[in-house]
């Protein structure tokens, strides 16, 4: 029997539940087993050590920040709700691995250039939190992430609010400053992946809608300040052929493409509507194909008597004789073409 009510909205997939349990296990071990954290976390000073560089694949399992861990659990739950029936598991895993790996590498390289202190450490999944904010913005920038009545936090403001919260937590030492760097790097790499690299069967690669531009993630007063340097960097990368060109797309066309395939469903009702429409289209297609095979269309060259026997039977009961009076027609050839013959019809109602 299908689950109804609040329990249905709290249902998560097996792989999401497994990931949550794995992250919680790493979070617990980081607090109670000191060597767990030091062996799995990445230190920027070890960036050029081939052996210790392998920690780019383990740093996400080590976190001792309460805020980062529980925000990660919450956002992974949101991701499962967003991409259900839209992304495959392979695509979701590819996206998370891509963002986490490049975010920690770019953050480690930046911190190595700015400060080579051995106390700097990168751990946790702040990059994943930012990446899921970007995914939510791609699906629908006006949907509410958190709401109370008519007031709430919209997807388009999710990144900037999260970044300000991380800065505030860092000021009070709830998180490390390196987590702020990870968060911002995760935002940039996740936007780059979804903007240029994500494969869509109907629209090739990337999401090129104007509403998904980099400047749209910032408040209106900051959009122009962000748009100018981002456009400048884009044109430099485009000239150097390091970045694919952007094809302008209509918002309406893009929304329809998202609803038909990957991604773009904004709520559970939209997902259910898409599934119902798909099933209905398949049923109608099957029915039309069967009816075309069985139905024999009438030949236009045949007379009405061979194809419409029921209709002619009714006409025979009503029309008994048709008399054509040719005497009224003139004898000349021109008259035959100009004046039609007079037809007298005698009907008997039986």
From TrEMBL:
Main location: membrane
Region entry Disordered, spans: 295-316, 328-350
The keyword Ligase belongs to this UniProt entry's keyword annotation: no
Biological process (GO), any one: retrograde vesicle-mediated transport, Golgi to endoplasmic reticulum
Recorded topology in the membrane: Multi-pass membrane protein
Domain of life from the UniProt record: Eukaryota
Keywords for this protein: Membrane, Transmembrane, Transmembrane helix
Biased composition (Polar residues): 303-312
UniProt-recorded name of the protein: Peptidase S54 rhomboid domain-containing protein
Species of provenance: Opisthorchis viverrini
Transmembrane domains' residue ranges: 12-37, 92-114, 120-139, 151-169, 175-194
Gene Ontology cellular-component annotations: Golgi apparatus; membrane
Localization per record: Membrane
């Amino acid at each position: 029997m299908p689950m109804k009510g609040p329990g249905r909205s709290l249902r998560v997939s097996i792989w999401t539940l497994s990931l949550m349990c794995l992250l919680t296990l790493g979070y617990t071990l980081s607090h109670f087993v000191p060597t767990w954290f030091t062996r799995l976390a990445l230190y920027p000073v070890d960036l050029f050590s081939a052996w210790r560089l392998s920690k780019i694949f383990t740093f996400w399992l080590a976190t001792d920040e309460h805020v980062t861990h529980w925000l990660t659990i919450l956002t992974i739950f949101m991701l499962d709700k967003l991409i259900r029936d839209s992304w495959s598991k392979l695509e979701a895993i590819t996206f998370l691995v891509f963002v986490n790996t490049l975010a920690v590498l770019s953050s480690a390289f930046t911190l190595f250039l700015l400060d080579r202190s051995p106390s700097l450490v990168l751990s946790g999944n702040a990059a994943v939190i930012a990446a899921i904010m970007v995914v939510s913005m791609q699906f629908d920038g006006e949907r509410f992430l958190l709401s109370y009545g008519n007031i709430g936090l919209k997807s388009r403001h999710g990144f900037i609010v999260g970044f300000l919260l991380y800065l505030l937590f860092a000021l009070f030492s709830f998180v490390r400053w390196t987590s702020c760097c990870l968060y911002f790097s995760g935002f940039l790499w996740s936007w780059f992946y979804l903007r240029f690299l994500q494969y869509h069967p109907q629209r090739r690669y990337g999401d090129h809608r104007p509403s998904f531009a980099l400047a749209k993630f910032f408040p209106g007063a900051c959009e122009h300040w962000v748009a100018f340097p981002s456009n400048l960097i884009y044109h430099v990368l485009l000239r150097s052929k390091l970045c694919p060109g952007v094809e302008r797309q209509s918002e309406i066309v893009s929304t329809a493409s998202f609803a038909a395939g990957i991604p773009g469903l904004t709520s559970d009702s939209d997902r259910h509507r898409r599934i119902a429409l798909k099933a209905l289209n398949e049923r109608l297609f099957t029915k039309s194909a069967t009816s075309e095979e069985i139905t024999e269309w009438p030949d236009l060259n045949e007379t009405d008597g061979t194809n419409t026997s029921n209709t002619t039977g009714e006409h025979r009961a009503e029309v008994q004789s048709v008399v054509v009076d040719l005497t009224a027609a003139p004898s000349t050839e021109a008259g035959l073409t100009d004046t039609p013959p007079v037809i007298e019809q005698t009907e008997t109602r039986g």
